[in-house]
């Protein structure tokens, strides 16, 4: 895989979609899929916000408002993730409702981020800089994963810290 930050982010986006399919599949290990999704979703968002978004703000073609909006959508995704993590049983009716809320929030963010932030970055950020950002993104993402960022207690803390970002 390329070290281009855009390609790395897009690969994570496709992984989220795969995990959503597993979460909807009653024959799959839905709890394991949720653990995987929670860890990757939180690590991905934290790495974007700490390494990628601040760097992209320096480029004229990348809209600062869209970058800020991306962070707001991360907070909305974390709220929806927490609601699903707090459902005890994947067989419960509430599971499907909370899962669909999460899918809707995350897919909305992925679509907007890909169309606005990432397309602008592809056009305006030089290849070498995108490779450097790719390294930083992977390092930050791995650090968060190693720290257990998908744990329900950490997600709860994130929701509390970012509640002012969500309408």
Question: Which SSEs are present, and which pair or pack?
Answer:
Layout: H1 5-24, H2 30-56, H3 64-85, H4 93-124, H5 127-146, H6 152-162
Helix pairs in contact: 1-2, 1-4, 1-5, 2-3, 2-5, 3-4, 3-6
Give a verbal description of the structure:
By secondary structure, the protein is an all-alpha fold. The chain has one domain. 79% of the residues lie in helices and 0% in strands. It contains 6 helices and no strands. It has helices at 5-24, 30-56, 64-85, 93-124, 127-146, 152-162. The longest helix is centred in the middle third of the chain and has 32 residues, at 93-124. It is globular, with a radius of gyration of 16 Å. The relative contact order is 0.19. The model has no long low-confidence stretch (mean pLDDT 93).
Condensed summary:
79% of the residues lie in helices and 0% in strands. By secondary structure, it is mainly α.
Jot down its keywords.
167 residues, mainly alpha
User: Number of helical segments?
Assistant: 6
Report low-confidence residues grouped into runs of 5 or more.
none
Report the end-to-end length measured between terminal Cα atoms: 37 Å
Task: Give the helix level as a range of percent.
Answer: over 70%
What is the makeup of the main sheet? none
What general form does the structure show?
globular
How many strand segments? 0
Tell me the Rg in angstroms: 16 Å
* DSSP strand content: under 5%
What structural category arises from helix and sheet content?
mainly alpha
């Amino acid at each position: 895989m390329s070290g281009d930050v855009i390609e790395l982010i897009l690969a994570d986006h496709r992984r989220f979609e795969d995990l959503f399919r597993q979460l909807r599949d009653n024959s799959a290990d839905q709890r394991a899929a949720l653990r995987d999704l929670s860890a990757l979703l939180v690590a991905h968002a934290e790495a974007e916000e700490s390494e990628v978004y601040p760097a992209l703000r320096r480029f004229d073609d990348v809209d600062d408002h869209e970058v800020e909006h991306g962070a707001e959508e991360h907070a909305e995704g974390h709220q929806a993730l927490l609601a699903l993590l707090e459902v005890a049983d994947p067989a419960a009716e509430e599971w499907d409702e909370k899962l669909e809320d999460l899918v809707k929030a995350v897919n909305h963010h992925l679509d907007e981020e890909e169309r606005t932030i990432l397309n602008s970055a592809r056009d305006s950020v030089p290849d070498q800089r995108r490779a450097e950002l790719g390294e930083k993104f992977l390092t930050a993402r791995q650090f968060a994963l190693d720290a257990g960022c998908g744990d329900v207690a950490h997600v709860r803390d994130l929701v509390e810290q970012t509640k002012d970002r969500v309408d």
